Amino acid sequence: MERRHFLLIAALLLLFIPGPSTAAAPKCLDCHGDKKKHKVVHAALEMGCDSCHVGTHAGKKPAPKLTAKVPDLCYTCHDKDQILKARSHAPVADGMCTACHDPHGSGQPKLLVAAVPDLCFTCHSADTLGKKNVHASAAQGKCLTCHAPHSSASAYVLTQLVEEHCLSCHDDITDKHVLARVSPGDSHPLRGKPDPLRKGKDLACASCHNPHAEGQAKAVPLKSREPADICLRCHRKARMGP
């Protein structure tokens, strides 16, 4: 047999011999097939188990090790600069990705371990909303309408400044708003002035309204029903007279 014929036959035989890398994932899934049966499956599973795990194991112990510690392992695919911004959500700042996300699969979007707001209430007290007047977004469990789950440039990981959030729904608010029930026609600044009750912060909607819930109408933090009393929270001299 000529040498060229031999090489041709050898090359054809190699096409039918499976490579060693194709056997790794099926072996894992023989026991852990449930990992791919969720509604939402982590894309990393399609990359092969060895993209996150290293080594082998038999039975329950020892468990296969990760190729890197969390969150560094997560950042091999997920952009760290997009997740970590000026103000980070506490579990994100602490690198606790798996506190909120299942690394394999979930019945919830984004691989969440529970639905929002139940997931939020594993750390944040639901008593925050246990008052008579609850802000519409909070009452509907839409925490992510106002808050970013990872990080943002604003305080309280808000997706934008609080005034911009409020105006996105309450678009009829003007500088006449504050005194509408006390002295109609007069105006009061809504921003750009120091807030006497929140040191180091300027006036904002949250100066007079609780963004989650309160006992009084309009989520105003008062025990009295008199609208002028909210003015006296800052303008205390008015109570004493000249």
What report would you give on this structure?
The protein has eight helices and eight strands; from the N terminus they run ααβββαβαββαβαβαα. The chain has helices at residues 3-15, 24-32, 80-83, 90-93, 136-139, 162-169, 228-232, 237-240; strands at 40-41, 53-54, 65-66, 87-88, 105-106, 133-134, 151-152, 213-214. The model is unreliable at 11-24 (pLDDT under 50). The chain has a domain at 161-240. It is α+β, with helices and mostly antiparallel strands and 242 residues long. A two-stranded antiparallel ribbon has the order 1-5. Strands 2-3 form a two-stranded antiparallel sheet. It has a two-stranded antiparallel sheet with strand order 4-7.
List keywords for this structure.
single chain, 242 residues, alpha+beta, two-stranded antiparallel sheet, 8 helices, 21% helix
- Bin the strand percentage: 5-15%
Q: What is the quaternary state of this protein? A: single chain
Number of helices: 8
How many strand units? 8
Strand order of the largest sheet: 1-5
* Overall spatial form: elongated
Helix content: 10-25%
Major beta-sheet overview: 2 strands, antiparallel
Could you tell me the mean pLDDT?
Answer: 83
The arrangement of helices and strands along the chain is HHEEEHEHEEHEHEHH
The poorly predicted ranges are: 11-24
Taking all Cα atoms into account, the compactness measure Rg is: 29 Å
In whole angstroms, the N-to-C terminal distance is 117 Å
Overall structural class, as computed from helix and strand content, comes to alpha+beta
